[in-house]
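#structure-requests
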Amino acid sequence: MPHGPAEVGVGPWEGAWPTGEQYDEQLLAEGDRRNVVDRYRYWTMEAIVADLDTRRHDFHVAIENWQHDFNIGTIVRSANAFLAREVHIVGNRRWNRRGAMVTDRYQHVVHHGSVPELAAHLHEQPGGPVPLWGIDNLPGSLHLETTAVPRRVCFLFGQEGPGLSDAARAACDATFSIAQFGSTRSINASAAAAIAMHAWVRTHADLSDDGPAWRG
């Protein structure tokens, strides 16, 4: 637009309102300015979550939260984009939601007081235990790029700076590093999380032209 950014979303519904329990009457009347894909325009949040639950992917994402890392919200946003089954916050219950851009409302976010609690939760999952993979550039870590990512897995990330805690390293079934080629010794934790999740998507997600992926 010539005088400022275009409005996000859509305005009030024009014409006869659609029928169905998924629709929110207030959104139909006032417009839907949320950052959701067109499929979910005018839907209630509960209806969106219920629909996502029918097709969530088989990977989990876990983040240690000892220092209220600002990256946590961004990781949650990526977990929503790639449709993680659950997001796990390990450590402090309160976390920095700013980077999530309210996408946490559409995810199942589970809190664990410690890494052993997380490991126990993953061990008791329906269908059998879920492996816990740490992602960090630690000595002896395996190469994520050349490893077959299993369908059922939980990626665990540490805090920006210190990385995975000692307790996390001990609890992981394996740790994996992401190849880097520049001068810095590490990449941002939220960037690493997105790379790991996309590795799962490349291996297991339905990427067919008529599949569920949204490409804009």
